[in-house]
Amino acid sequence: MVRVATVTPAMLGSVTRFLQQEQRLAGSPWADAGRDYYAWKFFGNPCGPSLAQCAYAGTELIGFLGADARRLWAAPHTSVVMHTGDSYVREEHRPSGVYLRLLWALHQACLAAGIPLSYARPSRSLIPLLQRSGAIDLARLQPWVRPLSGAWAGARLGLGPCAPVRGALNALSVLSTLPATLISGGIRIEPLSAFGRDADHLWRRARPAHGATLVKDRSYLTWRYLSGPCRYQILGARRGGELVGFVVTTGCRDRADTCELVDLLVAPEGGRFIAYRLVGEALRRARKSGFARMRCQLTGSLSHTVFTSPRTRPCSDLCVAEPLKGNQPSGGLSALISKQARIRGSKANARQAPATAASRNDADPLPYALRLHGFLVRANEAEAVPLLAAPHTVRGSPPAPLYQALAEHGWQQFRIGDTDGA
After folding, report:
1. Contact 48, 69 (CB under 8 A)
2. Given the DSSP bridges, would you call strands 60-74 and 212-214 parallel, antiparallel or unpaired?
3. How, if at all, do strands 293-299 and 376-377 pair?
4. CB-CB neighbours of 346 under 10 Å
5. Which of 5, 261, 289, 386 is the most buried (most CB within 10 A)?
6. Buried b (16+ CB within 10 A) or exposed e, 45-61
7. Checking DSSP bridges between strand 258-266 and strand 242-251, what pairing results, if any?
8. What is the pLDDT of residues 400-415, one digit of tens each?
């Protein structure tokens, strides 16, 4: 008989050994994550308590579903939500529905704690099971990649990596990021070793430009990027001594030659230029550190994903976006140009329409900076990462304010009356 229990600090030792063994069998680059990592992730989180679930057959641990808290700002509400990941079930027990039992236990725990939503970026094999439990398909994350060598210049110019021009292409790749480092515009870029009150002030200034995003105050940023066992490179942008933006990068565990851009936040005043400077400096430092490429992930509509995860690879904290639609533009300059033409052709309607998350993302500084720095969009559907969310409610109960806020920001799946629980 299978029983499910919420993970407590006393269970961390057995949970760590179970996850290390399963990740080693799966070939995961996180197989070396130790007890300190899971203690930080599940029990050091300032956003709220963990609701991670364990499944047992007798006394044997046979399944695990991680769930750690985040705070989600969806104007005008801030709600605690759960990010789920680290899902493993021993192979011999998978046909018996252990994963669905774990999902149901998490649903019940979220109901008891008053948590309205959980989200995941799962492997494709888990999508049908998540949908059976009531999860909603929200978005697809497309990888954007910027090679840091002549391969970038060759791709931009339509040239192959032939030896006679490789040196020139490498030089061109280096020169392409020079303007971002030479044109200061009154912005000073420097490493950040701590997040203080100025980070809270930056968050309060940047928040109104986003329809829905994770709360990025100093307590979250300190926990996420400075307190844990993982190492991140953090660059801050200052204007007249004031913090006006930051960018976070880290080396990828699954590819040693690749650097990941995982977070960026800028002040609304001059945000595009600040993002351009930050990404340019991050590229320069990544190249100097010996990385061959930098990557990040955005939705196909050139905006960011609404949710975030520190564990699902490739990780990305690039927040705020419009929902998944049937006909998403594939990205790139042609989609942007046609989008702007449609906007110019309907100025009168646009002036009368209320601002939404989707319309605000037209001026999103990060995709703007990535395009200027030559990031290439990989539109291969097989490389896109799915984003799913599960509402936690009971049929007949009043809908959580978060659902209405998300619906008003473009996610029609959360329209009141459409969410009846898992």
Report:
1. yes
2. antiparallel
3. unpaired
4. 11
5. 261
6. bebebbbbbbbbbeeeb
7. antiparallel
8. 888 888 888 777 778 7
Helix, strand or coil for residue 142?
strand
DSSP for 37-93, please give it.
HHHHHHHS-TT-----EEEEETTEEEEEEEEEEEEEEETTEEEEEEEEEEEEE-GGG
Among all chains, which residue has been given the structure tokens 């790749």? 173
Tokens at residue 159, please?
A: 């040239």
Ordered domains of the chain (ranges, CATH): 2-120+392-414 (3.40.630.30), 142-383 (3.40.630.30)
Token pair 């020169």 in the structure block, residue: 175
The DSSP-derived string for 288-311 is HTT-SEEEEEEETTSS-BS--BSS
- Contacting residues for 304 by C-beta, under 8 A, at least 6 apart: 298, 318, 319, 320, 321, 361, 364, 366
Please tell me the pTM assigned to this model. 0.78
Q: Which tens digits make up the pLDDT trace of 109-138?
A: 999 999 999 998 888 889 999 998 889 888
